[in-house]
Amino acid sequence: MNASVVGRCVSTSGGGAHLKSGNASRCSRGGCRLGRDVSAAAEDCSFRSADSLPHFTPTDQFLSLEKRVSDFNQAVEVVQLPNIPNPNEGPVVGVPEHYLGVRAMLIGGIEGELIPQSVYHPERVLTGECWDTLAILPSIIPDGVMGIYGLGGGSLARICEVYYPQQKIMAWEVDPTVVELADKWMGLGFLQKHGNLTVRIGDCLSNNATVRDGFAGLVIDLFDAGGLMDQLTQKSTWETFKNRMMPRGRILANMDKFDEELCNVLLDVFEGSVSFKEEGSNVLALTGPPPNPTFAEIPSDLNSQFVGWVSIEELME
Prior knowledge:
- By secondary structure, the chain is α/β, with parallel strands linked by helices.
- It is built from 8 helices and 15 strands.
- The strands form 4 sheets. A 7-stranded mixed beta sheet has the order 9-8-7-10-13-15-14. It has a 4-stranded antiparallel beta sheet with strand order 3-4-5-6, with helices on one face.
- A hairpin with a 2-residue loop joins strand 11 and strand 12.
- The longest helix has 11 residues, at 34-44.
- The chain is globular, with a radius of gyration of 19 Å.
- 48% of the residues are buried.
């Protein structure tokens, strides 16, 4: 998901937070099993031997764990951010406190900024980013499968596994390299082996990205070259998504920035029943009425994510 750290890092594309030199804007993941599952995931995703890691110097302040080129992205890299600012160089400028100690998956190759596409911390599940808000969806949908279009490194899936351990999730990711690195470094392999997550490698816009009885909920977090995919501005795409839902199923989408054309498409397809929330520089869209915590089973850690949902008129004020 700068200055001396981020400013020299290869930038990425994806729906995560943009961390530019000197500032940072936020993006855009039942009984809590945090104590057992997160520690087990951390053990499963522990650091490899020092000999297998790239050289880490104080001037870089972050550690590149692994970097690959894929058929879909110029670069896919997992980096480790420091737990505390380097005492010899002062604070890690441009990196928010909640990013310290995380592993970030970077996608792309644009110079000058770092865009975490997914983040992972072995001892924390909540990210301080829009994945936390996307994770309210299991609280407000009927029983059934929740889909994720745009799994990335699994930040959202991990939150849902901890706070909604009974929720079945089917997630799509187009780039197998992303899944391989997330399995290795970000605990995704643990979620697939021990949780209710099923991962599909493929294009979620294809006719195969469905479940038998329709999705109870669907998170859409799709980006291309750092921006929203062109297909997501088309009415036919959202009509297809709508037809993949079960009755009373709801869609929660990361729209990136405010886009009046896209808002109008959503309002048209879903007959005006769409709520919006600003998350830093990002806008999220939820089909149906604003989420009502009074009638939802909400993990207490996610209570704040129910605040701030508005109509299109209020969003544009």
